[in-house]
Amino acid sequence: MKVIVITGSTRGIGLGLANAFLERDCAVCISGRNQQSVDKIVSSIAENYPSQPLFGLACDVTDPEQIQSLWDGVVEHFGQVDIWINNAGIANELSDFRELTPDTITAVVETNVLGTLHGSRVALNGLIAQGFGALYNMEGHGSNGRKQEGLTLYGTTKAALKYFNDCLVDEVEGSPIIVGSLRPGMVWTDLISEQFAENPEVLERSKGVLNIIMDKVDTVAPWLADQMLANDKNGTRITWLNRRKMASRFIMAPFSKRQIID
User: Fold this and answer.
1) What stretches of 110-213 show up as alpha helix (H) in DSSP?
2) How many CB atoms lie within 10 A of CB 172?
3) How far is CA 247 from the centre of its chain?
C-alpha cells in the first residue's frame, strides 16, 4: 500500500487528491495549517473510507521544523512515505503588483516558494535515507511562461518553481528517487474564487472564457493521482490541460457548452 503525504490538503486540489488516492487504496496523510481543521477533514473523509488508513497532522509549510515534524509523524504512523506532494499554496487577489501590500507579497512568496523549498529539502532527505519514493511539486500559472493581468506575484512564484523543479530532477538523476511536477491547469477552487473576491465584475466578464478552460477538482484530481501512481520516470511533468486539449476546447466551444462556473 502506497503512503501519500499532501501538504495543503484540507481543501481544493489537495483535498481532491487525498480522496482520489484513498479511492485507489492508498494510505493518506492530510495536512493543513490548523490541527482543528485537519481533524475535521479527517473525520469527514473517514466516513467515506472507513477501512482506509488515514492520518492528519497540522503543518505550516513556511516553518521548516513543522515540515520535519510532518515527515517524522507520518513515518512513525505509517512506517514510510512513497509519494510526497508539495501542494500548499496561496494566491493574491487580482491586482497590479504595485497595489499589493508588503504582507501579501511576503505571504505568497513564503507559502508558494519557501514552503515548497523547505518541503522538498525535508522530503528528499527522507526519501534518500529510506532508499525509494517520489516527490512532486505543484506548479501552476506562470510556470509555463504565460502572463495574466493581476497575477504577477502568483505567476512569479510558480515560474520560480519550474526552475527549482528542473534543478531537483538533475540532482537526483541516477538515484532511486523520482522528482516530478504537477500542472493541473485552471481548477475552480477557493484559490481561484478568492482572487475575484474584490472584483466580482471581472469574474462576470470572464465567465465565458473560464468555462472553456477551467475544470472541476473531481475531474482533475483523480487523473493526477493515476498519473503519479503509474509514473516511474524521473523528471516527469504531469500536465492536465496541454496545448492540444486547450485548442480543442476553444474549437468546440460554439458547439459544446461547458458549465464549470454558474
Assistant:
1) 115-130, 152-172, 190-193, 200-213
2) 18
3) 24
The pLDDT-based confidence of 84 (bands split at 50, 70, 90) is: very high
Phi, psi of 39 (to 5 degrees): -60, -40
Maximum separation of any 2 CA atoms in the chain, in Å: 54
Q: Is 231 left (phi over 0), alpha (psi -120 to 50) or beta?
A: beta
User: Cell for 211?
Assistant: 468555462
Cell readout for 161 is 518553481
CATH 1.10.10.10 is the classification of domain 3-201+215-243: no
End-to-end CA distance of the chain: 39
The alpha helices in 173-238, defined as continuous H runs, are 190-193, 200-213, 217-230
Residues contacting 24, CB < 8 A, separation 6+: 225, 226, 229
Q: How far apart are CA 115 and CA 112, in angstroms?
A: 6
pLDDT for 233: 98
Q: What is the DSSP letter of 133?
A: E
Three-state secondary structure call for residue 112:
helix
Element (H, E) at 72: helix 64-78
Fill in the amino acid letter for 210.
L
Q: What is the mean pLDDT of residues 176-202?
A: 81
202-206: average pLDDT: 66
